[in-house]
Amino acid sequence: MNLLEIENKLLKEENDKLKKQLENYTNSRKSYYEKNKETVNEKATLRMKKLAEENPDKLKEYRKQYYLKQKEKKQLL
How far apart are CA 21 and CA 75, in angstroms? Predict the structure, then answer.
């Protein structure tokens, strides 16, 4: 019984440690996008324009996939 309690305690500590690491990682990513929102959006629009010029079929494929995912989400609700 004592071994189980010790193991349980160790696992809880490890779980807390991993939660803190995950929280730090996600917060840093969020803060990056909050600070650089305009540049990220600008780069995305440029990328889409470039893709539309070079390979419009790929753009159609992306839009079709997006449409199907949205349709699937609506059906689940």
Answer: 36
